[in-house]
Design brief:
The chain has 277 residues and is α/β, with parallel strands linked by helices. The protein has one domain: Aldolase class I (TIM Barrel). Strands 2-3-6-7-10-11-12-13 form an 8-stranded parallel β-barrel, surrounded by 7 helices. β6, α3 and β7 form a beta-alpha-beta unit. The radius of gyration is 17 Å and the shape is globular. The N and C termini lie far apart (39 Å). 48% of the residues are buried. Bound molecules: zinc ion (ZN). Zinc ion (ZN) binds next to loops. The site of zinc ion has 8 residues, from loops.
Length: 277
Protein backbone atom coordinates (compact mmCIF):
# COMPACT_ATOMS: atom_id res chain seq x y z
CA UNK A 1 0.00 0.00 0.00
CA UNK A 2 1.04 3.58 -0.35
CA UNK A 3 1.74 6.37 2.10
CA UNK A 4 -1.05 8.88 2.49
CA UNK A 5 -0.44 12.56 3.13
CA UNK A 6 -3.15 14.22 5.20
CA UNK A 7 -3.75 17.96 4.81
CA UNK A 8 -5.71 19.75 7.51
CA UNK A 9 -7.49 23.03 6.72
CA UNK A 10 -8.06 24.23 10.27
CA UNK A 11 -9.87 27.56 9.78
CA UNK A 12 -10.70 28.62 6.20
CA UNK A 13 -12.35 31.89 5.26
CA UNK A 14 -16.04 31.18 5.62
CA UNK A 15 -16.48 29.07 8.75
CA UNK A 16 -17.47 31.01 11.91
CA UNK A 17 -17.58 30.37 15.64
CA UNK A 18 -21.36 30.34 15.31
CA UNK A 19 -20.98 27.35 12.99
CA UNK A 20 -18.56 25.59 15.30
CA UNK A 21 -17.46 27.15 18.63
CA UNK A 22 -14.23 25.11 18.44
CA UNK A 23 -12.99 26.99 15.33
CA UNK A 24 -9.44 28.36 15.84
CA UNK A 25 -9.31 32.05 14.92
CA UNK A 26 -6.33 33.84 16.52
CA UNK A 27 -2.74 33.09 15.45
CA UNK A 28 -2.18 31.25 18.73
CA UNK A 29 -5.34 29.14 18.38
CA UNK A 30 -4.57 28.35 14.74
CA UNK A 31 -1.00 27.31 15.60
CA UNK A 32 -2.23 25.11 18.44
CA UNK A 33 -4.81 23.50 16.18
CA UNK A 34 -2.13 22.91 13.53
CA UNK A 35 0.10 21.28 16.15
CA UNK A 36 -2.70 19.00 17.35
CA UNK A 37 -3.50 18.10 13.73
CA UNK A 38 0.19 17.31 13.20
CA UNK A 39 0.25 15.03 16.24
CA UNK A 40 -2.85 13.27 14.89
CA UNK A 41 -1.11 12.61 11.54
CA UNK A 42 -1.40 15.71 9.34
CA UNK A 43 1.68 16.42 7.20
CA UNK A 44 0.37 19.69 5.72
CA UNK A 45 -1.59 22.56 7.20
CA UNK A 46 -3.65 24.59 4.74
CA UNK A 47 -3.48 28.05 6.30
CA UNK A 48 -5.95 30.92 6.35
CA UNK A 49 -5.80 33.65 8.97
CA UNK A 50 -8.31 36.11 10.41
CA UNK A 51 -8.11 39.74 11.51
CA UNK A 52 -8.87 40.95 15.03
CA UNK A 53 -12.61 40.83 14.29
CA UNK A 54 -12.37 37.23 13.14
CA UNK A 55 -12.83 38.14 9.47
CA UNK A 56 -10.73 36.57 6.67
CA UNK A 57 -7.45 38.39 6.06
CA UNK A 58 -4.46 38.01 3.74
CA UNK A 59 -2.30 40.32 5.89
CA UNK A 60 1.28 39.04 5.65
CA UNK A 61 1.99 40.15 9.23
CA UNK A 62 -0.72 37.91 10.62
CA UNK A 63 0.48 35.03 8.42
CA UNK A 64 4.06 35.61 9.60
CA UNK A 65 3.06 35.55 13.27
CA UNK A 66 0.96 32.41 12.79
CA UNK A 67 3.64 30.63 10.77
CA UNK A 68 6.26 31.37 13.43
CA UNK A 69 3.99 30.03 16.16
CA UNK A 70 3.37 26.87 14.12
CA UNK A 71 7.06 26.43 13.37
CA UNK A 72 7.93 26.83 17.07
CA UNK A 73 5.79 23.77 17.75
CA UNK A 74 6.38 21.38 14.84
CA UNK A 75 7.74 20.81 11.33
CA UNK A 76 4.35 20.44 9.60
CA UNK A 77 4.41 21.73 6.00
CA UNK A 78 2.63 25.08 5.70
CA UNK A 79 0.45 25.65 2.63
CA UNK A 80 -0.87 29.23 2.59
CA UNK A 81 -4.07 30.10 0.77
CA UNK A 82 -3.99 32.37 -2.25
CA UNK A 83 -7.73 31.84 -2.73
CA UNK A 84 -8.30 34.23 0.16
CA UNK A 85 -11.95 35.12 0.47
CA UNK A 86 -14.76 36.47 -1.68
CA UNK A 87 -14.19 40.10 -2.71
CA UNK A 88 -10.38 40.22 -2.30
CA UNK A 89 -8.13 41.53 -5.07
CA UNK A 90 -5.51 39.24 -6.59
CA UNK A 91 -2.77 41.41 -5.11
CA UNK A 92 -4.20 40.94 -1.62
CA UNK A 93 -4.57 37.22 -2.16
CA UNK A 94 -0.90 36.83 -3.12
CA UNK A 95 0.44 38.66 -0.03
CA UNK A 96 1.38 35.57 2.05
CA UNK A 97 3.58 34.20 -0.77
CA UNK A 98 6.12 36.90 0.13
CA UNK A 99 6.85 34.94 3.30
CA UNK A 100 8.18 32.11 1.13
CA UNK A 101 6.14 29.29 2.67
CA UNK A 102 6.85 25.82 1.35
CA UNK A 103 3.45 25.52 -0.36
CA UNK A 104 0.43 27.55 -1.40
CA UNK A 105 -2.99 26.77 -2.85
CA UNK A 106 -3.66 28.05 -6.37
CA UNK A 107 -7.20 28.27 -7.74
CA UNK A 108 -7.17 27.09 -11.35
CA UNK A 109 -10.35 28.76 -12.61
CA UNK A 110 -13.28 31.02 -11.84
CA UNK A 111 -15.63 29.64 -9.22
CA UNK A 112 -19.21 30.19 -8.16
CA UNK A 113 -19.13 30.30 -4.39
CA UNK A 114 -22.63 30.18 -2.98
CA UNK A 115 -24.24 33.38 -4.17
CA UNK A 116 -20.78 34.91 -4.69
CA UNK A 117 -17.89 34.11 -7.00
CA UNK A 118 -14.10 34.16 -7.08
CA UNK A 119 -12.57 35.27 -10.37
CA UNK A 120 -9.48 33.49 -11.66
CA UNK A 121 -8.93 34.32 -15.33
CA UNK A 122 -6.07 32.67 -17.19
CA UNK A 123 -3.94 35.89 -17.09
CA UNK A 124 -4.58 36.02 -13.31
CA UNK A 125 -3.52 32.39 -12.93
CA UNK A 126 -0.34 33.14 -14.92
CA UNK A 127 0.43 36.13 -12.65
CA UNK A 128 -0.18 33.91 -9.64
CA UNK A 129 2.15 31.24 -11.02
CA UNK A 130 4.94 33.80 -11.45
CA UNK A 131 4.47 34.92 -7.83
CA UNK A 132 4.76 31.27 -6.77
CA UNK A 133 7.92 30.87 -8.86
CA UNK A 134 9.52 34.11 -7.63
CA UNK A 135 9.02 33.03 -4.03
CA UNK A 136 9.89 29.35 -4.64
CA UNK A 137 6.50 28.15 -3.40
CA UNK A 138 5.06 24.80 -4.50
CA UNK A 139 1.46 25.15 -5.71
CA UNK A 140 -1.40 22.83 -4.89
CA UNK A 141 -3.45 23.12 -8.07
CA UNK A 142 -6.99 23.54 -6.75
CA UNK A 143 -9.53 22.41 -9.32
CA UNK A 144 -13.26 22.87 -8.80
CA UNK A 145 -14.13 21.67 -12.27
CA UNK A 146 -12.74 19.48 -15.07
CA UNK A 147 -12.11 22.65 -17.10
CA UNK A 148 -9.70 23.76 -14.37
CA UNK A 149 -7.69 20.57 -14.85
CA UNK A 150 -7.60 21.17 -18.61
CA UNK A 151 -6.35 24.71 -17.93
CA UNK A 152 -3.47 23.32 -15.86
CA UNK A 153 -2.55 21.02 -18.73
CA UNK A 154 -2.29 23.99 -21.09
CA UNK A 155 -0.12 25.84 -18.55
CA UNK A 156 2.04 22.74 -18.05
CA UNK A 157 2.44 22.57 -21.84
CA UNK A 158 3.66 26.17 -21.77
CA UNK A 159 6.25 25.22 -19.13
CA UNK A 160 4.60 27.36 -16.43
CA UNK A 161 4.10 24.59 -13.87
CA UNK A 162 6.85 22.20 -12.88
CA UNK A 163 6.48 18.54 -11.87
CA UNK A 164 5.81 16.81 -9.60
CA UNK A 165 2.27 18.20 -9.74
CA UNK A 166 0.02 18.27 -6.67
CA UNK A 167 -3.67 18.70 -7.37
CA UNK A 168 -6.45 19.49 -4.90
CA UNK A 169 -9.97 18.64 -6.05
CA UNK A 170 -12.68 20.72 -4.41
CA UNK A 171 -15.99 18.92 -4.64
CA UNK A 172 -19.41 19.74 -3.26
CA UNK A 173 -18.77 23.47 -2.71
CA UNK A 174 -22.04 25.42 -3.05
CA UNK A 175 -22.36 26.35 -6.72
CA UNK A 176 -19.77 23.74 -7.76
CA UNK A 177 -19.83 20.12 -8.87
CA UNK A 178 -21.24 17.68 -6.30
CA UNK A 179 -19.18 14.97 -4.66
CA UNK A 180 -19.76 11.44 -5.78
CA UNK A 181 -17.31 8.69 -6.50
CA UNK A 182 -17.89 8.80 -10.28
CA UNK A 183 -17.10 12.52 -10.35
CA UNK A 184 -13.96 11.99 -8.28
CA UNK A 185 -12.94 9.24 -10.70
CA UNK A 186 -13.36 11.62 -13.64
CA UNK A 187 -11.08 14.16 -11.95
CA UNK A 188 -8.45 11.54 -11.08
CA UNK A 189 -8.37 10.17 -14.62
CA UNK A 190 -8.03 13.66 -16.13
CA UNK A 191 -4.77 14.77 -14.45
CA UNK A 192 -1.29 14.06 -15.84
CA UNK A 193 0.16 10.65 -14.99
CA UNK A 194 2.28 10.43 -11.83
CA UNK A 195 0.62 13.50 -10.31
CA UNK A 196 -0.14 13.60 -6.61
CA UNK A 197 -3.63 14.65 -5.60
CA UNK A 198 -5.82 15.28 -2.61
CA UNK A 199 -9.56 15.78 -2.39
CA UNK A 200 -11.77 17.89 -0.21
CA UNK A 201 -15.46 17.12 0.02
CA UNK A 202 -17.27 20.18 1.36
CA UNK A 203 -19.85 19.45 4.06
CA UNK A 204 -20.07 16.57 6.51
CA UNK A 205 -21.28 13.82 4.22
CA UNK A 206 -19.04 14.70 1.29
CA UNK A 207 -16.01 15.14 3.54
CA UNK A 208 -16.34 11.66 4.99
CA UNK A 209 -17.15 10.13 1.60
CA UNK A 210 -14.09 11.82 0.08
CA UNK A 211 -11.79 10.09 2.60
CA UNK A 212 -12.97 6.72 1.32
CA UNK A 213 -12.89 7.97 -2.27
CA UNK A 214 -9.31 9.17 -1.90
CA UNK A 215 -8.17 5.81 -0.55
CA UNK A 216 -10.05 3.89 -3.27
CA UNK A 217 -8.33 5.82 -6.04
CA UNK A 218 -4.90 6.06 -4.40
CA UNK A 219 -4.94 9.74 -3.46
CA UNK A 220 -4.29 11.89 -0.43
CA UNK A 221 -6.80 13.18 2.12
CA UNK A 222 -7.82 16.64 3.26
CA UNK A 223 -10.01 17.34 6.28
CA UNK A 224 -10.61 20.27 8.63
CA UNK A 225 -13.08 22.95 9.67
CA UNK A 226 -12.65 24.90 6.42
CA UNK A 227 -14.38 22.03 4.62
CA UNK A 228 -16.60 20.54 7.29
CA UNK A 229 -17.52 21.30 10.88
CA UNK A 230 -19.24 18.01 11.74
CA UNK A 231 -17.95 14.73 13.11
CA UNK A 232 -21.12 12.88 12.15
CA UNK A 233 -24.63 13.87 11.13
CA UNK A 234 -25.71 16.76 13.36
CA UNK A 235 -22.71 16.31 15.70
CA UNK A 236 -20.23 19.20 15.76
CA UNK A 237 -16.57 18.09 15.72
CA UNK A 238 -14.55 18.82 18.88
CA UNK A 239 -11.37 19.74 17.04
CA UNK A 240 -9.54 19.58 13.75
CA UNK A 241 -7.37 16.86 15.29
CA UNK A 242 -10.44 14.70 15.81
CA UNK A 243 -11.10 14.79 12.05
CA UNK A 244 -7.44 14.04 11.26
CA UNK A 245 -7.43 11.13 13.73
CA UNK A 246 -10.38 9.54 12.01
CA UNK A 247 -8.84 9.99 8.56
CA UNK A 248 -5.59 8.42 9.80
CA UNK A 249 -7.46 5.54 11.38
CA UNK A 250 -9.41 4.78 8.20
CA UNK A 251 -6.21 4.92 6.12
CA UNK A 252 -4.42 2.65 8.60
CA UNK A 253 -7.26 0.14 8.62
CA UNK A 254 -7.02 0.03 4.85
CA UNK A 255 -3.31 -0.84 5.19
CA UNK A 256 -1.87 2.55 4.30
CA UNK A 257 0.76 4.36 6.33
CA UNK A 258 0.50 8.05 7.09
CA UNK A 259 3.23 10.16 5.49
CA UNK A 260 5.29 12.44 7.72
CA UNK A 261 6.06 16.03 6.69
CA UNK A 262 9.62 14.96 5.81
CA UNK A 263 8.33 12.19 3.55
CA UNK A 264 5.99 14.63 1.80
CA UNK A 265 8.87 17.12 1.38
CA UNK A 266 10.77 14.38 -0.48
CA UNK A 267 7.77 13.44 -2.66
CA UNK A 268 7.07 17.05 -3.66
CA UNK A 269 10.73 18.13 -3.82
CA UNK A 270 10.20 20.91 -1.29
CA UNK A 271 12.94 22.91 0.30
CA UNK A 272 13.70 21.52 3.74
CA UNK A 273 12.14 24.30 5.78
CA UNK A 274 10.52 27.67 5.63
CA UNK A 275 12.74 30.59 4.67
CA UNK A 276 10.42 33.31 5.89
CA UNK A 277 11.79 35.99 8.15
ZN1 LIG B 1 -8.65 27.49 1.81
Amino acid sequence: MYKIAITCAVTGAETTRDDNPNLPVTPYEIALSAFEAFKAGAAIIHLHVRDKDGLPSQDANVFRETMRLIRDKCNIIIEVTTGGAVGMTLQERLEPLKLMPEMGSLDCGTINFGDDYIINTIPMIKDTLSAFKDNKVKPTLECFDLSHIDTTKVLIGEGLIEPPFHYGFVLNAAGGVRYDVETLGAFVHRIPENSYWTVMGIGGKASLSAIYGAISFGGFIRVGFEDNIFYSKGVIADSNAQLVERAARIANEYGCEIATPEEVRKMFGLKSDILFS
